[in-house]
Write a structure and sequence with these properties.
- By secondary structure, the chain is mostly helical.
- Helix content is about 85%, strand content about 0%.
- Helix 1 runs parallel beside helix 5 (about 130-155), helix 1 (about 1-75) crosses helix 7 and helix 7 (about 165-195) runs antiparallel to helix 8.
- The longest helix is centred in the N-terminal third of the chain and has 73 residues, at about 1-75.
């Protein structure tokens, strides 16, 4: 019996350190797993902050577009000598008699010009104020055109003519411009942070490659928009006489 107790004590002395080590190892593994869960819980917060800022920029761009459009209508009296009735009539004549391909090319070039300029501004780290103003200036010009059409042809005829030959290209072009301006703001902000040394996590190659792909998407949208606008102009040309 005494021999059995002695063997039991020796066995405990041999195996208890192992048991402690196993317990410590289990605690360490559990602790490591707990540490690995920290980024998982913090990741959605970062995503929400990022998307919130992007959404806020998009809302500001839309508001500035609306303000620019209203300002264009109000300021039309100052520019009416430029957009005279003869000027409007000449432009409508080209739209009605220009044919499908000419109208599609004109719409594409007009939309692509705004998109390309907005896209180029994204590569500058200090171009954020200019990017915010681009949709406002574009919509201000369209507001001037709408008011000019109404003054030249009356409220009903002016609105109908504007809706048929100007509105489709304006609506598609404005949406594409807003899209690329929002992308340009994001890239411009990241470029500024990278240049100023405030962020070392930005990888320009990946950032610009993604931005370039979005630029191609916007240009493709301009091409499709030009076709849609040309089709609408071709259909509406049968109902308008200049």
């Amino acid at each position: 019996m005494e021999l059995s107790n002695t063997l039991e004590k020796e066995r405990n002395l041999i195996y208890e350190p192992d048991a402690v080590a196993d317990e410590e190892e289990n605690i360490k593994i559990y602790s490591d797993k707990a540490d690995l869960t920290v980024p998982v819980f913090s990741l959605p917060q970062k995503i929400r902050i990022k998307n919130g800022g992007s959404n806020a920029a998009g809302i500001v761009l839309i508001l500035l577009s609306v303000i620019g459009f209203i300002a264009g209508i109000i300021l039309c009296d100052s520019f009416f000598e430029v957009l005279s009735e003869e000027y409007i009539k000449a432009g409508l004549t080209l739209r009605i008699k220009g044919g499908f391909f000419a109208n599609a090319a004109f719409s594409f070039i007009t939309m692509a010009g705004w998109v390309a300029f907005s896209f180029a501004m994204g590569y500058s780290g200090i171009s954020q104020p200019v990017i915010f103003l681009i949709p406002a200036v574009k919509c201000a010009g369209t507001g001037i055109m709408l008011s000019s059409f109404v003054k030249a042809y009356g409220v009903l005829n002016g609105l109908l003519t504007f809706s048929a030959f100007i509105l489709p290209s304006f609506a598609i072009g404005t949406l594409l411009t807003l899209y690329i301006c929002r992308c340009a703001l994001r890239v411009s902000n990241k470029t500024f942070l990278s240049i100023s040394g405030k962020s070392a996590d930005i990888r320009p190659a990946i950032l610009y490659r993604d931005y370039l792909s979005k630029g191609f998407i916007a240009i493709a949208g301009c091409f499709i928009g030009g076709i849609i606008d040309a089709v609408i102009s071709l259909i509406c040309s049968n109902f308008f006489v200049i």
